[in-house]
């Protein structure tokens, strides 16, 4: 893989973990402040980047691999810093890997389907089947949809070169569509 592509992938992963207000997610979604909750929120953002980069051909697919590689290195480092011993770290990494690939499958299905399917994937994965407040699910479905629309509109060449992704806030006042569908304008002749 080209070095510049690895740099862009690492930068994109970094955007997934450093530009997110995790405390806001923990509060609004009633998630405990744990390594696992951090991972679940990070994985949604990583997944959204993977979806976007898969549209960019072979280079995008390479970036996807390195983004995921960077994520696993980061998770392992964070668990070491937290003092999780090698045995438990290995078990946790195995469980997180299974969770990640199951979540990716569910989120992919959800983004291609309607809001009910996406809500079910979020309920199973982010909320671990423990969400009693439908407003939290609604907030997350809206968040994923608006984020996907936002990053889909980003220039692919720029993403491949820089890896720079900005995220919209979890909660926005009057969060209407960011892309205005161009309505055709007609002159008097109907042209």
UniProtKB/TrEMBL annotation:
<dbReference type="InterPro" id="IPR007129">
    <property type="entry name" value="Ubiqinol_cyt_c_chaperone_CPB3"/>
</dbReference>
<feature type="domain" description="Ubiquinol-cytochrome c chaperone">
    <location>
        <begin position="27"/>
        <end position="163"/>
    </location>
</feature>
<dbReference type="GO" id="GO:0005739">
    <property type="term" value="C:mitochondrion"/>
</dbReference>
<dbReference type="GO" id="GO:0034551">
    <property type="term" value="P:mitochondrial respiratory chain complex III assembly"/>
</dbReference>
<dbReference type="InterPro" id="IPR021150">
    <property type="entry name" value="Ubiq_cyt_c_chap"/>
</dbReference>
<comment type="similarity">
    <text>Belongs to the CBP3 family.</text>
</comment>
<dbReference type="Pfam" id="PF03981">
    <property type="entry name" value="Ubiq_cyt_C_chap"/>
</dbReference>
<protein>
    <submittedName>
        <fullName>Ubiquinol-cytochrome c reductase complex assembly factor 1</fullName>
    </submittedName>
</protein>
């Amino acid at each position: 893989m080209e070095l510049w592509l690895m740099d862009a992938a690492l930068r994109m992963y970094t955007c997934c973990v450093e530009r997110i207000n995790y405390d806001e997610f923990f509060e609004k979604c009633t998630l405990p402040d744990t390594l696992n909750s951090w991972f679940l929120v990070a994985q949604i953002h990583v997944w959204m980047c993977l979806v976007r980069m898969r549209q960019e051909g072979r280079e995008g697919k390479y970036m996807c691999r390195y983004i995921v590689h960077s994520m696993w290195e980061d998770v392992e480092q964070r668990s070491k810093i937290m003092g999780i011993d090698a045995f438990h770290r290995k078990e946790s990494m195995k469980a997180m890997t299974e969770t990640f690939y199951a979540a990716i499958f569910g989120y992919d299905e959800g983004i291609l389907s309607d809001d009910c399917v996406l809500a079910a994937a979020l309920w199973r994965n982010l909320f671990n089947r423990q969400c009693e407040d439908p407003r939290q699910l609604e907030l997350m479905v809206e968040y994923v949809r608006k984020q996907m629309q936002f990053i889909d509109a980003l220039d692919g060449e720029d993403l491949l070169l820089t890896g720079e992704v900005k995220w919209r806030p979890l909660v926005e006042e009057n969060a209407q569509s960011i892309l205005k569908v161009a309505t055709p304008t007609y002159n008097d002749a109907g042209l």
